[in-house]
Amino acid sequence: MNTPAPAPTDTAAVRRHNLALVSREIAAHGPCARTEVATATGLVPASVTGLAADLIGRGLVAEVGSASSGGRGRPRRLLRLVPERVVAIAVQVTLERVEVMAADLAGTVVHRASVPHHAPFGDPEPPAAVLAREIGRAEAVVRARPDVHLARVVIAMAGPVTGPGHTVAAAIDFGWSRTDLRALVLAHLPDLACPLDVVNDANVAALAEYHARAEPGGELPYAVAYIKADTGVGGGLVVDGRIHIGTHGMAGEVGHIPLAFDGPDCPCGARGCLAMYVGPEPLTAAAGLADLAARDGIDAALAELDRRLAAGDPRAVDALAVAGRAVGAAVLAISGLVDPGEVILGGYLATWKAWLTPGVDATLAGRRALAPRLQPAIVAGVLGPDATLRGALRISRESTLANAADVPALGDAATTT
After folding, report:
1. Residue-wise burial string across 326-335, b where 16 or more C-beta atoms lie within 10 A, e elsewhere
2. Euclidean distance between CA atoms 242 and 239, whole angstroms
3. 3-class SS at 204?
4. Own/partner pairs, 370-375, CB within 8 angstroms, 24+ separation
């Protein structure tokens, strides 16, 4: 009995899958020969030749010279990714500002902006309008570049993001309840000709920091936890190289792990959450900077706290020591549930790790004495304030390579309009 030929839709799906295999292999290991791609992907050489021609036609891959075949055969033509062919726009919403970065597949920045949004507490519409305006400006910069495909826009927002509709389930620090931020922004951008995603800011920062720690030939832990404090306190879990979000998008939301039943009330409805000890408002208040934060904004208060720490101000140092004990307690809770190989500190927790460490060590001392080899390494993130934007761009890069068939052929009107 003859097996029926695949339906056209199946054939198209198989080709999309194979294009993704080839584009990822070239991106990861190029310049490389077609024979090397065939060996790595398991595809037959003839298929790789056709798929490579397709990717070259889309401008996503180019031939870059040749290498000896090691015998009498013709030299092998080498293939490499063309990173400048595709650009994405990443946007981060902080308590006071909208940060924008447009970059290509290699991370080369082609546009950067930072603007205040002056958003009233509890109303997502004003920041959505600012987001739309800045996305439009970034889009214009990208569209002006010849032969550049705008892949997508990724907005990174505090709070769990759920479902295919990219709904922000709650943004406590902004006073938002369930908010369809994507729809609010797109209402101001009816002509946006690329996908727009909304993601959790700490999750993508966790992914970026995880990969930033990779060394050639090195091995990363199977599970890594990330704790950051900047706009608020959040975190993420990376398991086997992927963001783990849980059932409702809440996995990794360490800012609202309760550390004390009789602790201060948290806006999330619980008491004694980590955010109430290391969040920007509680931390600057503990350092005696509440009035400055109220008058000049939280960014100014954090900058002053940094200056006081550098000067050895006792109240500032004590505030960080208490915060360190809270971080240590959160690490204990995370370790019992996730067993990460590393805990990466991000935001100002990374910047001020030296002042946090005494408190962290004091909290972990008993567990480390009992089972030192079972405790995670606690390390500082290396990407600084760009971690979230870099993570959002990484999400877009992975999507582009997984959907190389969506990159139009060179010369297609969709490329630049």
Report:
1. bbbbbbbebb
2. 5
3. helix
4. 374/335, 374/339, 375/335
Q: Amino acid identity, residue 372?
A: P
Other beta carbons within 10 Å of 72:
5
Q: Does residue 116 sit in helix, strand or coil? A: strand
Q: How many CB atoms lie within 10 A of CB 254?
A: 25
66 has which bridge partners? 77
The DSSP element (H or E) to which 366 belongs, if any, is helix 353-370
Predicted TM-score of the model (pTM): 0.87
pLDDT in tens, the chain (417 residues): 444 544 445 888 899 999 999 999 999 998 999 999 999 999 999 999 999 999 999 999 999 877 665 555 566 789 999 999 999 999 999 888 999 999 999 999 999 999 999 888 999 999 999 999 999 999 999 999 999 999 999 999 988 888 766 788 888 888 898 899 999 999 999 999 899 999 999 999 999 999 888 765 567 889 999 999 987 899 999 999 889 988 877 888 899 999 999 999 998 889 999 999 999 999 999 999 999 999 999 989 999 999 999 999 999 999 999 999 999 999 999 999 999 999 999 999 999 999 999 999 999 999 999 988 888 999 999 999 999 999 999 999 999 999 999 999 987 654 444
* CA 190 to the chain's CA centroid: 26
Say if residue 170 is exposed, middle or buried (CB neighbours under 10 Å; 0-12, 13-18, 19+).
buried
Q: Which domains does the chain have, with CATH numbers?
A: 8-81 (1.10.10.10), 85-203+389-415 (3.30.420.40), 214-381 (3.30.420.40)
Copy the structure tokens of residue 211. Answer: 């990969």
